[in-house]
Amino acid sequence: MAMPFRTMVATPEEIARMAEAFDEAWSQIQTRVDTSSASRHRDRLACIIAELWLADPSADLALLAVRRFEKIVAGAPLGMPTARLKAVE
């Protein structure tokens, strides 16, 4: 996984917007991930948020991040609240 942070230049307001999107997305994801790999999931989500912001800073980052996280990492739809998600290596 490439780290988008090395080439990222953002204003404090943009960083705050990404942090807010991360918190919103994580609140939707965290209860369904395996706690033993939560740190890895958070790192993955942060990369997803950064990649989305680089592609389109005006996008709904939280919504798109949750969708991409589940597609890439979990492969499970949001409608499965009891599923415990694990990272795909």
Give the overall form. Answer: globular
Mean pLDDT: 80
Helix content: 55-70%
Strand content: under 5%
Radius of gyration: 13 Å
Overall tally of structural domains? 1
Structural class: mainly alpha
List low-pLDDT spans: 77-89
SSE ordering: HHH
Descriptive notes:
- The protein is mostly helical and 89 residues long.
- It has one domain (12-74).
- The protein contains 3 helices and no strands.
- Helix 1 (12-29) crosses helix 2 (38-55) and helix 2 packs across helix 3 (61-74).
- 25% of the residues are buried.
- Mean pLDDT is 80; it is low at 77-89.
SSE inventory with pairings:
Elements: H1 12-29, H2 38-55, H3 61-74
Main traits of this protein?
disordered C terminus, 89 residues, globular, 56% helix, 0% strand, mainly alpha
